[in-house]
Amino acid sequence: SETVLEVRDLVKHFPIRRGILRRTVGVLKAVDGVSLELRRGETLGIVGESGCGKSTLARMLTAHERPTSGEVTVLGRSMRDLRGRELRRSRRHIQLIFQDPYGSLDPRMTVADAVREPYDVNPDLAARGERVRRVRELLEVVGLNPDHGDRYPHQLSGGQRQRVGIARALALRPDVLVCDEPVSALDVSVQAQIVNLLEQLREEFRLAYVFIAHDLGVVQHLADRVAVMYLGRVVETGSEADVYGAAAHPYTQALLSAAPQPDPALRGTRQEILLDGEPPSPVDPPSGCSFHPRCRKVADSCSRLPPPLEPGARPGHLVACHLADRPA
Ligand code: SF4
Ligand code: MG
Fold first, then answer.
1. 320 lines ligand 1 (CB under 6 A)
2. DSSP structure string for 305-322
3. Terminus of the chain with fewer CB atoms < 10 Å: N or C?
4. Nearest CA to 159 among 192, 137, 134, 181?
5. Torsion of the alpha carbons at 159, 165, 168 and 169, rounded to the nearest 10
Protein backbone atom coordinates (compact mmCIF):
# COMPACT_ATOMS: atom_id res chain seq x y z
CA SER A 1 0.00 0.00 0.00
CA GLU A 2 0.82 3.68 -0.24
CA THR A 3 3.83 5.17 1.56
CA VAL A 4 2.53 7.77 4.02
CA LEU A 5 5.80 8.77 5.68
CA GLU A 6 9.34 8.83 4.43
CA VAL A 7 12.31 9.97 6.45
CA ARG A 8 15.72 10.44 4.90
CA ASP A 9 18.99 10.97 6.80
CA LEU A 10 17.39 12.92 9.59
CA VAL A 11 19.84 14.71 11.88
CA LYS A 12 19.36 16.91 14.93
CA HIS A 13 22.43 18.34 16.57
CA PHE A 14 22.09 20.75 19.48
CA PRO A 15 25.04 23.07 20.09
CA ILE A 16 26.16 23.14 23.72
CA ARG A 17 26.98 26.66 24.83
CA ARG A 18 28.85 27.75 27.92
CA GLY A 19 29.89 30.91 29.68
CA ILE A 20 28.88 34.55 29.38
CA LEU A 21 29.69 34.62 25.68
CA ARG A 22 27.67 31.45 25.10
CA ARG A 23 30.51 29.95 23.12
CA THR A 24 29.83 26.61 21.51
CA VAL A 25 31.82 23.99 23.38
CA GLY A 26 30.34 20.83 21.94
CA VAL A 27 27.52 19.23 20.02
CA LEU A 28 24.78 16.97 21.32
CA LYS A 29 23.99 14.51 18.54
CA ALA A 30 20.41 13.70 19.54
CA VAL A 31 19.50 12.15 16.19
CA ASP A 32 22.35 11.29 13.87
CA GLY A 33 21.17 10.07 10.48
CA VAL A 34 17.87 8.20 10.73
CA SER A 35 15.95 6.93 7.68
CA LEU A 36 12.52 5.31 7.90
CA GLU A 37 9.52 4.47 5.79
CA LEU A 38 5.92 3.82 6.79
CA ARG A 39 2.97 2.55 4.77
CA ARG A 40 -0.71 3.18 5.33
CA GLY A 41 -2.12 1.06 8.14
CA GLU A 42 1.34 -0.05 9.28
CA THR A 43 2.89 0.27 12.74
CA LEU A 44 6.59 0.90 13.16
CA GLY A 45 7.80 0.41 16.73
CA ILE A 46 10.85 2.38 17.84
CA VAL A 47 12.63 1.13 20.94
CA GLY A 48 15.67 2.20 22.89
CA GLU A 49 16.76 3.45 26.29
CA SER A 50 15.98 6.98 27.38
CA GLY A 51 18.30 9.51 25.81
CA CYS A 52 18.67 7.58 22.54
CA GLY A 53 16.89 10.34 20.58
CA LYS A 54 13.41 8.81 20.29
CA SER A 55 11.54 11.91 21.45
CA THR A 56 13.62 14.29 19.36
CA LEU A 57 12.89 12.07 16.37
CA ALA A 58 9.15 12.15 17.18
CA ARG A 59 9.23 15.95 17.37
CA MET A 60 10.95 16.24 14.01
CA LEU A 61 8.51 13.85 12.34
CA THR A 62 5.62 16.04 13.46
CA ALA A 63 7.37 19.33 12.67
CA HIS A 64 7.54 20.40 16.32
CA GLU A 65 11.28 20.58 15.80
CA ARG A 66 13.25 21.51 12.70
CA PRO A 67 15.89 19.02 11.62
CA THR A 68 19.50 20.14 11.37
CA SER A 69 19.53 18.25 8.08
CA GLY A 70 17.63 15.54 6.27
CA GLU A 71 14.07 15.36 5.13
CA VAL A 72 10.59 14.30 6.30
CA THR A 73 8.10 13.57 3.51
CA VAL A 74 4.44 13.15 4.39
CA LEU A 75 2.05 11.81 1.72
CA GLY A 76 4.66 12.54 -0.92
CA ARG A 77 5.21 16.14 0.18
CA SER A 78 8.47 17.25 1.73
CA MET A 79 8.03 19.35 4.88
CA ARG A 80 11.52 20.81 4.62
CA ASP A 81 10.78 24.17 3.06
CA LEU A 82 7.23 24.66 4.32
CA ARG A 83 6.41 27.62 6.54
CA GLY A 84 3.30 29.13 8.12
CA ARG A 85 -0.03 28.10 6.64
CA GLU A 86 1.47 25.53 4.30
CA LEU A 87 3.32 23.85 7.16
CA ARG A 88 0.16 23.75 9.32
CA ARG A 89 -1.75 22.18 6.46
CA SER A 90 0.83 19.50 5.83
CA ARG A 91 1.38 18.71 9.48
CA ARG A 92 -2.27 17.92 10.06
CA HIS A 93 -1.61 14.58 8.38
CA ILE A 94 0.88 13.58 11.05
CA GLN A 95 -0.07 14.13 14.67
CA LEU A 96 1.87 13.63 17.89
CA ILE A 97 0.54 11.92 20.99
CA PHE A 98 2.60 12.94 23.97
CA GLN A 99 4.07 10.89 26.73
CA ASP A 100 2.73 13.02 29.53
CA PRO A 101 -1.04 13.46 29.45
CA TYR A 102 -0.70 15.72 32.51
CA GLY A 103 1.57 18.28 30.94
CA SER A 104 0.17 18.25 27.41
CA LEU A 105 -3.30 19.65 28.17
CA ASP A 106 -3.92 23.29 29.07
CA PRO A 107 -5.35 23.22 32.62
CA ARG A 108 -7.64 26.21 31.86
CA MET A 109 -9.27 24.57 28.87
CA THR A 110 -12.26 22.28 29.09
CA VAL A 111 -12.14 18.90 27.40
CA ALA A 112 -14.42 20.11 24.60
CA ASP A 113 -12.29 23.23 24.03
CA ALA A 114 -9.12 21.15 23.89
CA VAL A 115 -10.59 18.78 21.29
CA ARG A 116 -12.05 21.68 19.28
CA GLU A 117 -8.86 23.76 19.27
CA PRO A 118 -7.21 22.04 16.26
CA TYR A 119 -10.04 23.42 14.10
CA ASP A 120 -8.96 26.99 14.92
CA VAL A 121 -5.74 26.24 13.05
CA ASN A 122 -7.40 24.24 10.26
CA PRO A 123 -10.85 25.88 10.00
CA ASP A 124 -11.73 24.35 6.64
CA LEU A 125 -11.86 20.86 8.17
CA ALA A 126 -15.10 21.48 10.07
CA ALA A 127 -17.60 24.29 9.60
CA ARG A 128 -18.15 26.34 12.75
CA GLY A 129 -21.68 25.06 13.27
CA GLU A 130 -20.57 21.48 12.90
CA ARG A 131 -17.81 21.52 15.50
CA VAL A 132 -19.89 20.83 18.60
CA ARG A 133 -21.22 17.67 17.05
CA ARG A 134 -17.75 16.71 15.80
CA VAL A 135 -16.26 17.10 19.28
CA ARG A 136 -18.97 14.89 20.82
CA GLU A 137 -18.30 12.28 18.17
CA LEU A 138 -14.54 12.37 18.83
CA LEU A 139 -15.06 11.98 22.58
CA GLU A 140 -17.23 8.97 21.94
CA VAL A 141 -14.71 7.44 19.55
CA VAL A 142 -12.01 7.51 22.24
CA GLY A 143 -14.32 6.09 24.90
CA LEU A 144 -15.14 9.27 26.83
CA ASN A 145 -18.63 10.40 27.80
CA PRO A 146 -19.59 13.15 25.31
CA ASP A 147 -21.60 14.84 28.06
CA HIS A 148 -18.40 15.42 30.04
CA GLY A 149 -16.95 17.94 27.57
CA ASP A 150 -17.28 20.71 30.17
CA ARG A 151 -14.80 19.06 32.54
CA TYR A 152 -11.28 20.31 33.18
CA PRO A 153 -8.09 18.22 32.99
CA HIS A 154 -7.68 18.16 36.80
CA GLN A 155 -11.04 16.38 37.06
CA LEU A 156 -9.81 13.52 34.86
CA SER A 157 -7.68 10.46 35.49
CA GLY A 158 -4.40 9.94 33.62
CA GLY A 159 -6.05 7.48 31.25
CA GLN A 160 -8.91 9.89 30.52
CA ARG A 161 -6.45 12.69 29.82
CA GLN A 162 -4.58 10.49 27.38
CA ARG A 163 -7.92 9.77 25.66
CA VAL A 164 -8.46 13.53 25.32
CA GLY A 165 -4.99 13.82 23.79
CA ILE A 166 -5.90 11.09 21.29
CA ALA A 167 -9.23 12.76 20.44
CA ARG A 168 -7.38 16.02 19.80
CA ALA A 169 -4.93 14.25 17.52
CA LEU A 170 -7.78 12.59 15.62
CA ALA A 171 -9.70 15.84 15.12
CA LEU A 172 -7.71 16.69 12.01
CA ARG A 173 -8.20 13.24 10.46
CA PRO A 174 -4.51 12.40 10.32
CA ASP A 175 -2.93 9.59 8.34
CA VAL A 176 -0.11 9.02 10.79
CA LEU A 177 0.00 9.14 14.58
CA VAL A 178 3.38 9.45 16.24
CA CYS A 179 2.95 8.08 19.76
CA ASP A 180 5.83 9.01 22.06
CA GLU A 181 5.67 6.63 25.02
CA PRO A 182 1.90 7.09 25.16
CA VAL A 183 1.33 4.72 28.08
CA SER A 184 4.52 4.88 30.13
CA ALA A 185 3.15 7.54 32.51
CA LEU A 186 -0.02 5.51 33.19
CA ASP A 187 -0.88 2.80 35.72
CA VAL A 188 -0.30 -0.69 34.40
CA SER A 189 -4.02 -1.49 34.46
CA VAL A 190 -4.77 1.56 32.31
CA GLN A 191 -1.94 0.93 29.85
CA ALA A 192 -3.68 -2.04 28.25
CA GLN A 193 -6.88 -0.05 27.77
CA ILE A 194 -5.07 2.72 25.91
CA VAL A 195 -3.10 0.23 23.79
CA ASN A 196 -6.36 -1.52 22.89
CA LEU A 197 -7.93 1.81 21.99
CA LEU A 198 -5.00 2.68 19.71
CA GLU A 199 -5.26 -0.73 18.07
CA GLN A 200 -8.98 -0.29 17.48
CA LEU A 201 -8.51 3.22 16.04
CA ARG A 202 -5.80 1.97 13.70
CA GLU A 203 -8.26 -0.48 12.14
CA GLU A 204 -11.16 1.95 12.11
CA PHE A 205 -9.31 4.84 10.46
CA ARG A 206 -6.51 2.91 8.67
CA LEU A 207 -3.96 4.91 10.60
CA ALA A 208 -0.25 4.32 10.42
CA TYR A 209 1.66 4.52 13.71
CA VAL A 210 5.14 5.35 14.75
CA PHE A 211 5.00 3.87 18.21
CA ILE A 212 7.86 4.85 20.47
CA ALA A 213 8.50 3.00 23.71
CA HIS A 214 11.13 1.60 25.98
CA ASP A 215 8.74 -1.22 26.88
CA LEU A 216 9.55 -3.98 24.41
CA GLY A 217 6.39 -5.94 25.22
CA VAL A 218 4.04 -3.14 24.16
CA VAL A 219 5.94 -2.61 20.92
CA GLN A 220 5.93 -6.31 20.09
CA HIS A 221 2.17 -6.44 20.53
CA LEU A 222 1.45 -3.51 18.19
CA ALA A 223 4.28 -3.32 15.68
CA ASP A 224 4.60 -4.80 12.20
CA ARG A 225 8.18 -3.57 11.98
CA VAL A 226 10.64 -2.47 14.63
CA ALA A 227 13.60 -0.08 14.69
CA VAL A 228 16.06 -0.21 17.58
CA MET A 229 17.82 3.07 18.37
CA TYR A 230 21.08 3.62 20.18
CA LEU A 231 22.65 7.06 20.68
CA GLY A 232 20.75 8.76 17.90
CA ARG A 233 21.01 6.00 15.31
CA VAL A 234 19.05 2.99 14.19
CA VAL A 235 21.23 -0.05 14.92
CA GLU A 236 18.78 -2.72 13.80
CA THR A 237 15.47 -2.75 11.94
CA GLY A 238 13.25 -5.40 10.44
CA SER A 239 9.95 -7.19 10.80
CA GLU A 240 8.64 -7.71 14.31
CA ALA A 241 9.32 -11.44 13.93
CA ASP A 242 12.93 -10.93 12.82
CA VAL A 243 13.84 -8.40 15.48
CA TYR A 244 12.18 -10.23 18.36
CA GLY A 245 12.81 -13.76 17.13
CA ALA A 246 16.26 -13.47 15.58
CA ALA A 247 17.85 -10.25 16.84
CA ALA A 248 21.23 -9.81 15.19
CA HIS A 249 22.63 -6.76 17.00
CA PRO A 250 24.23 -7.35 20.42
CA TYR A 251 22.37 -4.32 21.78
CA THR A 252 18.97 -5.65 20.69
CA GLN A 253 19.88 -9.03 22.15
CA ALA A 254 20.75 -7.40 25.47
CA LEU A 255 17.55 -5.34 25.52
CA LEU A 256 15.45 -8.42 24.81
CA SER A 257 17.16 -10.57 27.39
CA ALA A 258 16.65 -7.91 30.04
CA ALA A 259 12.93 -7.49 29.24
CA PRO A 260 10.44 -9.52 31.25
CA GLN A 261 9.19 -12.50 29.26
CA PRO A 262 5.41 -12.20 28.99
CA ASP A 263 4.88 -15.88 28.19
CA PRO A 264 5.45 -17.91 31.39
CA ALA A 265 6.21 -21.07 29.35
CA LEU A 266 9.23 -19.33 27.82
CA ARG A 267 10.46 -17.71 31.00
CA GLY A 268 14.02 -18.68 31.83
CA THR A 269 14.78 -19.90 28.34
CA ARG A 270 16.53 -16.70 27.37
CA GLN A 271 19.97 -16.28 28.72
CA GLU A 272 20.15 -12.94 30.40
CA ILE A 273 22.72 -10.58 28.94
CA LEU A 274 23.38 -7.67 31.20
CA LEU A 275 23.63 -4.15 29.90
CA ASP A 276 26.24 -2.41 32.00
CA GLY A 277 25.39 1.03 33.25
CA GLU A 278 23.71 3.88 31.46
CA PRO A 279 24.16 4.63 27.79
CA PRO A 280 27.10 7.00 27.19
CA SER A 281 26.40 10.67 26.60
CA PRO A 282 25.39 11.67 23.08
CA VAL A 283 27.58 14.76 23.56
CA ASP A 284 30.82 12.91 23.07
CA PRO A 285 29.81 9.48 21.85
CA PRO A 286 32.34 6.62 21.81
CA SER A 287 34.41 6.26 18.64
CA GLY A 288 33.69 3.62 16.01
CA CYS A 289 30.63 1.61 17.00
CA SER A 290 29.13 3.77 19.75
CA PHE A 291 27.93 0.60 21.52
CA HIS A 292 31.45 -0.85 21.87
CA PRO A 293 32.06 0.06 25.54
CA ARG A 294 29.00 -2.01 26.52
CA CYS A 295 29.21 -4.75 23.91
CA ARG A 296 30.00 -8.30 25.02
CA LYS A 297 31.12 -9.25 21.49
CA VAL A 298 33.39 -6.24 20.93
CA ALA A 299 36.27 -6.89 18.52
CA ASP A 300 39.41 -4.89 17.77
CA SER A 301 38.02 -2.94 14.85
CA CYS A 302 34.84 -1.91 16.71
CA SER A 303 36.29 1.15 18.41
CA ARG A 304 37.80 2.40 15.15
CA LEU A 305 35.21 1.85 12.42
CA PRO A 306 31.56 2.86 12.69
CA PRO A 307 29.43 -0.04 11.37
CA PRO A 308 27.00 1.07 8.63
CA LEU A 309 23.36 -0.06 8.73
CA GLU A 310 23.36 -2.80 6.09
CA PRO A 311 21.27 -5.81 5.04
CA GLY A 312 21.37 -8.73 7.47
CA ALA A 313 20.75 -12.39 6.76
CA ARG A 314 17.01 -11.97 6.19
CA PRO A 315 15.27 -9.81 3.57
CA GLY A 316 14.28 -6.39 4.89
CA HIS A 317 16.41 -6.84 8.00
CA LEU A 318 19.16 -4.22 8.50
CA VAL A 319 21.89 -4.41 11.11
CA ALA A 320 24.71 -2.03 12.08
CA CYS A 321 27.32 -4.43 13.48
CA HIS A 322 30.66 -5.59 12.09
CA LEU A 323 29.98 -9.14 13.20
CA ALA A 324 26.43 -9.52 11.86
CA ASP A 325 25.62 -12.23 9.31
CA ARG A 326 25.15 -10.79 5.85
CA PRO A 327 23.03 -12.07 2.94
CA ALA A 328 24.50 -15.26 1.49
FE1 SF4 B 1 29.52 -4.92 19.25
FE2 SF4 B 1 31.38 -4.44 17.43
FE3 SF4 B 1 28.94 -5.12 16.68
FE4 SF4 B 1 29.41 -2.74 17.78
S5 SF4 B 1 30.19 -3.48 15.84
S6 SF4 B 1 27.74 -4.09 18.24
S7 SF4 B 1 30.96 -3.24 19.29
S8 SF4 B 1 30.40 -6.37 17.83
MG1 MG C 1 11.52 10.38 25.62
1. no
2. SPPP-EE-SSTT-EE--T
3. C
4. 192
5. -120
Chain CA centroid to CA 326, Å:
28
pLDDT at residue number 188: 87
Is residue 183 within 8 Å of 163, Cβ to Cβ? no
ipTM over 0.90: yes
> Residue 292 CA: which ligand 1 atom is closest?
7
Pocket flag, ligand 1, residue 321 (CB < 6 Å): yes
Question: CA torsion 107→152→162→259, rounded to 10°?
Answer: 70
Instruction: Tell me which of 299 and 99 has the higher pLDDT.
Output: 299
DSSP β-bridge partners for residue 38 = 5
- 297 C-alpha to center of ligand 1: Å? 6
Q: Is 252 exposed, middle or buried (0-12, 13-18, 19+ CB in 10 A)?
A: buried
Q: Does residue 148 register a pLDDT over 90?
A: yes
Residue 211 pairs with which residues in a beta bridge?
45, 179
User: Going by CA atoms, what residue is nearest to atom 5 of ligand 1?
Assistant: 321
Q: Which residues surround ligand 2, an ion (CB under 5 A)?
A: 55
297 lines ligand 1 (CB under 6 A): yes
The answer to whether 199 and 166 are in contact (CB under 8 A) is no
| Ligand located closest to 179 CA | 2
| C-alpha 52 to ligand 2 mean position (Å) | 8
- pLDDT value at residue 281: 83
pLDDT of residue 18: 87
Closest CA to 93 of 174, 5, 211: 174
Inter-axis angle of helices 158-170 and 131-141, nearest 10:
130
302 CB near ligand 1 (under 6 Å): yes
